[in-house]
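Work through this protein:
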Amino acid sequence: MGYHQELTAYAKGFYVISHERSGTHFLMNCIQLNSSIDFKCLSVGEWFGPFDQPQTQFEHIYKRFSELNPQQHYILKTHCDRDLYNAKYPKGKIVYIFRDYRDVLVSYYYFLRDEYIASGRRRNQKISSLWFSRLEEFIRRPLPDFLQLNYSLYGDFSFPIERWLNHVVQWIDNPPEHMQIVTYNQLYYHPEETTQKLLKFLELPSKAVFTRPTFENSLSVMPRKGIVGDWKNHFSTKDAVFLDTAVSEYLPLIDRFPWNLEGRSSGEGNTLERSGRLNVYRHPAALRDC
C-alpha cells in the first residue's frame, strides 16, 4: 500500500484529518447527522511501538485498510501528518480541520494527563509516563518519542507547539485539490452553512433540516469542552507570549483562514478557503532559547 493507490480501491468514503483536539468529532458529527448516507466512522489509529522496531510503524495502517468493506461508506479519522499520508495512505477526499493552537494545547494537555498516556502504556510499557505536572511545564518540555512518531512519518519536532505547527503548516500550505480546509470556529459559529458547504464538496446528499451536534445526539465522541477561547482561563501572559512567538513566522499563512474570531475571514465572509504555498515548516528558533 502506498501513495499511488486510491481509497476507492478499498471502500467508499473520505478522510477527516486534524491535529488531535481540533474539533475532529464535532466535524464528523455534523456530517453524519446531516447527510442521508449511512456512514461508519473508523479511526486509522496511531503507532504504539515497539519503537526499537521501526519496521512495525505502518502495520496498523495496512491492517485498517485491509479490513474495510468495499460496500460500506466510511468517515476515516486520522491525525497523521501530511508526510505520513503521502507515503502510506490510499488517496481520497479530505476534510482538514484546525483550531486555535492555544485551545488545542490546553485540551491536549488534559487529554494526555487524564487518559491517553495511561492508555498508551497499557499497550506498551516502554511508553513514557507523564513528564509534566503543570500546563506551563507541558508546553515547554520536549515530547517523548512516542508523541513524535505516533502520527508522523519523521517526528521532526520537539515541543508541543512545534508538533502543532508541523501538522497544520504541512497541510494548509499548498493543499491538494481533493482537500477542503475548515476551521473549528467556522463550524462552531456557523455550523449549518459550513456543513452544507462541506457536503457539497464531498458530493453527499443532505437532509432537509439541519441538526447541530449535542452531547445527547452525538454519534461519536464530543469534545471535553469545545469552548472557543477557553485558553484564556489557563495560560498566563508569559505562556501566551511564548506560544505566540513560536507561531509568529507562520501567521501570514494561518491568518488566511478564519481560526481566531467568529469564523469569518476578513473580506470574504464565511468561506472555506484554499491556500497557496508560503513557507515550509521549520523549528521556531525562539523555542530553543526559552
In short: Strands lie at 12-17, 39-43, 73-78, 94-98, 179-183. DSSP finds eleven helices and five strands in the chain. The longest helix spans residues 101-123.
